[in-house]
Amino acid sequence: MGAVANGNGERDGRKEEEEEEEIGFEELGVDPRLIRALSKKSITKPTPIQREAIPLILEGKDVVARAKTGSGKTFAYLLPMLQKLFSESGSRKTAPRTFILVPTRELCQQVYNEASSLLEFCRVQLKVVQLTASMPVADMRTALAGPPDIVVSTPACISTCMSKGVLQTSNIKDSLSLLVLDEADLLLSYGYENDLKTLIPHVPRRCQCLLMSATSSSDVEKLKKLVLHNPVILTLSEAGHSDDIIPKTVQQFWISCSAHDKLLYILALLKLELIQKKVLIFLNSIDMGYRLKLFLEQFGINSGVLNAELPQNSRLHILEEFNAGLFDYLIATDDGQTKKEQTSKENHIQSRYSKKKLRQKLDAEFGVVRGIDFKNVFTVVNLDMPQSSAGYVHRIGRTGRAYNTGASVSLVSPEEEEIFEEIKLMFGDDEKQDSSKSIEPFPLLTKNAVESLRYRAEDVAKGVTKVAIREARAQDLRNEILNSEKLKSHFEVNPRDLGNKENFGGRYSCHLEFNFICFCMIFWEQFNSQCIILASATADLLKHDKLLSKKAPSSHLREVPEYLLDPTTKEASKILKLSRAAMKIDTKKRRPGFKKGFGRSRDPLKTFSAEEKSHKGEKRRKDNDEVIKHKKKKAKQGM
Ligand SMILES: Nc1ncnc2c1ncn2[C@@H]1O[C@H](COP(=O)(O)OP(=O)(O)OP(=O)(O)O)[C@@H](O)[C@H]1O
């Protein structure tokens, strides 16, 4: 175990990491039910932060855990927390035993999912709920009835529950035994300080408190003083040294180009296939996000857009679809800039938007970068440089997670040189530094390759006007709001359409006499086709990478003609394709029930209208009658 370095328990686990490689979850004292649950998630070996933190938390210590992005901090606190609750389950409580406070709704959902899935595997009677500020108070009251054992929420929401009397402060004092502040350094910068100050006076002294973060900051110091009592400061790395907060498995590159040429360069990187999919592209403004989406669409590159304007359930669904591999490119607007955009909007167009409306527009709790566990992102592209070096760390931390490899490419314009220098300084960027820990010039993109696409890129970029961007942004917002409402009301009226194929199939798997088998095959065929239509309709309705351009992409832009490619670029692209094949990256996933020929343009929900069904049903019945007649004739001959 890492040695305690000084009075307040500074630990530097780095020195002993090597000897601890063989320590498993069992040696850490983790409950066998949790070990079994982890093995079902193919997790068998603790990460360094888990090796260090779990025993300390089980001992009841206050812990500040600082470790690089993607290093497993969530399980580092979830596992011991659940284990402690196992031993307390059943005892009387008047309020939740554990609060897990995170800065964003997306993280709420993510941590809630992780906790729920562990509990499901362990089959223990513990209840976890998530609360977000957009929930009506009545729903919060319902969620807290019982009360649940674990609440995952944002500080703002907890203080709302307290001010509305949904959470009694006396009960918190009575029952709260563990308080976790995840992404701790972000909690204050998200303006939760007052919310935390509302809660903290009611946190009983005996309550164990944990702070988790990948980057250190004065905010973490502030929080430590606010909530912790003589904590063990667990630092697996001194935050600020590149080899610790950026996983060693991530290669970082940069390209110098003018702001004007950024679309050209990202097109070259994607179209010439010089970076590994899936790709997460960061920009600093929502408009730029839609500009990029419209621009890439013209070259046959579909992408999803993620930003603070979209409704919460759309954002969560976009993350789920991207993580499921249903599309390869996600354009994300960093929340930092969004806030700036919000402030600038507030200042300049006060008359048109009320502060409240604008705040609703840009969901303050939205965060696309911090802590979100993107799955299989192989390349992070900074099309705009982040506003801070911490922002850079968290953006790059979306790749190379859980021992995976990854890469980042930052397009640096002259105006961004200053922030780029600051970032390089953070990595102590000098000759001595070996390449795995600094930011190298991107080696695969030649000037020729870029220039070969310039004409096309500039021609298309001209067509992506401010009006087109504004319309696409409004259209996307309308689509997302409409679709999530439509889907919700449709399934409320037609719950059967949510029928579960697996259960249905199970009821008809027994042996049946010949004719009934025919009937089942026909019925199954009918049901199947409806399911396929429903699934593709739902999938189509919820596709987040659908086209937004009013102008249909011209086919000649989809492919890059051979004559435009110089040998170096061809060679580089071929090598990447081979490595992708070796890593089995390109296994394209289909949306559930995807059926060829299901046109994008139709309104998927119209598929369920009566006339559509009867027409389809009539034709299918005729075809099936033929099938039955033929089968019966065969059967008679056979008997
Ligand atoms: N012991 C482990 N072995 C392998 N994978 C793990 C292990 N623990 C967690 N993971 C996986 O690693 C990924 C990153 O975990 P997690 O999100 O907790 O990292 P993090 O340190 O919180 O990252 P961030 O700083 O971005 O919040 C998740 O997909 C998680 O399932």
Automatic annotation (TrEMBL):
- Tell me which EC number(s) this protein carries: 3.6.4.13
DEAD-box RNA helicase Q domain segment(s): 23-51
What region holds the Helicase ATP-binding domain?
54-234
The answer to whether UniProt assigns keyword Repressor to this entry is no
- UniProt keyword terms in alphabetical order: ATP-binding, Helicase, Hydrolase, Nucleotide-binding, RNA-binding
Catalyzed reactions per annotation: ATP + H2O = ADP + phosphate + H(+)
InterPro entries of this UniProt entry? Answer: DEAD/DEAH_box_helicase_dom, DEAD_box_RNA_helicase, Helicase_ATP-bd, Helicase_C-like, P-loop_NTPase, RNA_helicase_DEAD_Q_motif
* One GO cellular component, as annotated: cytosol
MF terms per GO, please?
Answer: ATP binding; hydrolase activity; RNA binding; RNA helicase activity
Q: Which Pfam family, just one, is annotated for this protein? A: Helicase_C
Q: Where is this motif: Q motif?
A: 23-51
The Helicase C-terminal domain is annotated at 269-450
First and last residue of the signal peptide:
none
* Family to which the UniProt record says this protein belongs: Belongs to the DEAD box helicase family. DDX56/DBP9 subfamily.
Name of the molecule in the record: RNA helicase
- Name the gene for this chain: LOC103707521
